[in-house]
Each structure stands twice: as C-alpha cells, then as structure tokens.
UniProtKB/TrEMBL annotation:
GO molecular function, one term: transmembrane transporter activity
Annotated transmembrane regions: 7-27, 39-60, 72-90, 96-120, 132-151, 163-187, 199-221, 227-243, 255-272, 284-303, 315-332, 344-366
InterPro entries: MFS, MFS_dom, MFS_Exporter, MFS_trans_sf
Major facilitator superfamily (MFS) profile domain span: 5-373
Natural source organism: Phocaeicola plebeius
Keywords, sorted A to Z: Membrane, Transmembrane, Transmembrane helix
Gene3D superfamilies linked: MFS general substrate transporter like domains
SUPFAM superfamilies: MFS general substrate transporter (SSF103473)
Name of the molecule in the record: MFS transporter
Length: 373
C-alpha cells in the first residue's frame, strides 16, 4: 500500500485541505473587518461552499472516464487556486458568494478525482479499504492545520498575502499529483450524467448520521478563535492515531462510536460552561480524541457497505457529507454566535441525538446490510 504514488497523494491531500481550510477564517476576517459585512453574512458566504460541492457531482463519472484522471484533478485544482486570486477585487457580497460557489464545485471535483479515483487506482485491491482510512486521516490533519494557520496568519500577513499563501498551498498538490503514475485507461462511452462517483444511496443512512461529527467541528471553527484550543484538538487526534490499530481490532463498533460521541459531547458541554485555559485544553483534547473514535466507525461503515464496483462512489459520498457537515456547523455557529454559549448547549443536544439514532437505527442497519451482502 505504501508505494510512491500513494504517498504522493497523501501529502497532496494534506496540503489541499490545509489550503482550503486556511481560507475560511482568512476570508471571514477580511469580509467583517474590511468589507463591513456582519459575521452572519460572512458565515453564509463561506458556508455555501458546502452545498456547492454537489453542483458538478452528476458529471463526475463522465469526467474521469473520458479525460485523463490526473488532468481532471490538477486542472480543477488550478482553477480553484486562480479563483482565490479574485477575492481582493470582489467588493460586492454577491461576487464573493459566486466565487465561493465556483470554488466549492471545483473542490468537489478535486475530492472525487483524488480520493475516490486516483487513490483507488494506485492501491492494490486488498488494501483499498485501509488506504481510504489513511487517506482520510491525512485530510483531517490538513483541515485542523489549515484552521490553525488561517487564524494565525492574519497576525503577520495582509489578506492579499494570505491569498498568495492559499495559492501556493494549492500549487503543491498540483505538482505532487502530476508526479503520480497512473495506468492509461481507454475512454468509455458513458452517459453525461449519472450517480456513479457521486452519491451511493446505501451509505446515506450512516453518512447522514456521521454529519453530527463535522457539524460540531464547524460550530467550534466559527465560535472558538484560540490557537491553543486547536493545538489541543490536533494533539487529541494524534493520540487517537497512536491508538488506532489497537482500537480498531479490539473495540466493538457500537462501543467505539458511542465513546467518540460522548467524548465530543463532554467537550462542547465544557465549552458551554467556560472558555478558560484549562477548559479549552480539556475540551480540545476530548474533541480530537472523540472525533477520531467516532469517525473511524462511521468511515469503516461507509467503505464496507459499497459493493466492489461502488467503492469510489461510497468514499466520495463520505467526502461530500463530511464537508457539508462542517459548513452547516459554521453557518449554525455564526447564526447563534451572540447567544452566550447557547450554541454549545445546542451542539451537545445534537450529539446526543446523533448517538441515540446510531444506537437505535444505524448500527442495526449496517449489520443487516453486511449480512445480506
């Protein structure tokens, strides 16, 4: 599994997520401080990114089986980066909104071409499930590092310079993906529109339940602006990665997900009580650890439910729902930002509802589907 091509894609995925997520706080701060928009208006412009991921999804299968897969990925990435250069010249909210929509649509194509296609192409069939899990962890680390970078870069760089940093971080995946060696595949006579490599409906039930995890992260991203807090989340997630192999083999999936959601629930409850340094440290560590436990089980379900020929579609369904969950959380966090901590109490209730739905419905659905395969 750990061949040169897979390693190149892992690193490319890390930098891709770092670039995309560092832009969120940078853009929000610029819109509020220089554009004069409210936090809610800025949050709405940022959050539309999540819905835009679905715009080109029906064309995915046609794109990667008609054109060279690396070209689909790298050219979409280049357009994603170039659109970022237009932000300093977009004075109107509608223009910023349009740029977010276009970037979201392109990011959806990049996710599909890289994670749901190229990773599968370069990995032996017996290791593809494991490869998808490892590839996911690189994206999660990139996401957390991107948020951390975005909140801190503004202290040292102007918005224009932050945009250049975003473009530079996008350029790295372009170079890395260009170095990947993929076997030539003759173009197929495919329909222009299809659900292949877009949405797999048999994974939607666990996928929709999984959205509570990124939703909570989105709420935190839009509500907590403390560098130390995000360092603690990264530390908690790294602790999970060190425990990953032991946990995966010895802990029942129902318990694994339950523990993860409870840890996240305790974390946001702590934040609702206080945002003192000690609380931030405990909440950050619990968030990173709980996110890892819960996501591991959800991801395991979403990559095992697809049939052999549906693997890429199942993984892309996870990617779309994850990003949409984060953006919904950002929107909710900005909508409730003046509620004196009420967003954290609401987040706790959402996590508890997600836990109950998983235990009562989703786990049984997964086990039944696996028996009937």
């Amino acid at each position: 599994m750990w061949n040169k091509n897979f390693n190149l894609l892992l690193i490319a995925n890390f930098f891709l997520y770092t670039a995309v997520y560092m832009l969120f706080p940078a853009l929000h701060h610029w819109m509020v401080s220089e554009g004069g928009y409210t936090g809610f208006q800025a949050g709405g412009a940022i959050a539309i990114f999540g819905a835009s991921l679905f715009l080109l999804g029906a064309f995915n299968n046609y794109l990667v089986d008609t054109f060279k897969r690396k070209n689909v990925c790298t050219r979409s990435l280049l357009l994603l980066a170039l659109l970022g250069l237009l932000y300093p010249y977009a004075g109107e909210w509608g223009m910023i909104f349009l740029l977010r929509v276009l970037q979201g649509a392109l990011f959806g194509v990049v996710l599909m071409a890289m994670g749901s296609t190229l990773v599968i192409d370069v990995t032996p069939s017996q290791y593809r499930n494991k490869a998808s899990v490892v590839f996911t962890w690189s994206g999660v680390l990139g996401m957390l590092c991107g948020i951390l970078l975005g909140y801190n870069a503004g202290w040292y760089l102007s918005f224009q310079q932050q945009i250049y940093l975003f473009v530079g971080l996008c350029a790295l995946p372009v170079v890395l993906v260009s170095m990947v060696e993929v076997c030539f595949r003759a173009p197929l006579d495919l329909p222009l529109l299809s659900f292949d490599r877009f949405l797999l409906f048999r994974t939607l039930i666990p996928g929709l339940n999984m959205m509570v995890v990124p939703f909570i992260l989105g709420v935190l991203f839009s509500s907590i602006f403390d560098t130390f807090f995000y360092i603690c989340i990264i530390a908690g997630f790294i602790v999970f990665l060190l425990l990953d192999r032991v946990v995966r083999k010895q802990v029942n999936g129902r318990l694994l997900n339950g523990v993860g959601l409870v840890l996240m629930c305790v974390a946001v409850w702590l934040l609702g009580c206080s945002t003192e340094k000690e609380m931030l440290m405990g909440a950050g560590l619990l968030t990173g650890l709980g996110m890892g436990f819960s996501l591991l089980q959800f991801l395991r379900m979403m990559i095992r439910l697809p049939l052999h020929c549906e693997r890429g579609t199942g993984y892309h369904t996870y990617q779309l729902l994850w990003e949409s969950g984060v953006m919904l959380g950002v929107f909710f966090g900005k909508y409730t930002e003046d509620s004196s901590g009420q967003q954290f109490r609401a987040a706790s209730l959402i996590l508890l509802a997600g836990l109950l739905i998983y235990q009562a419905v989703v786990h049984g659905y997964f086990m039944k589907r696996m028996k009937n395969r």
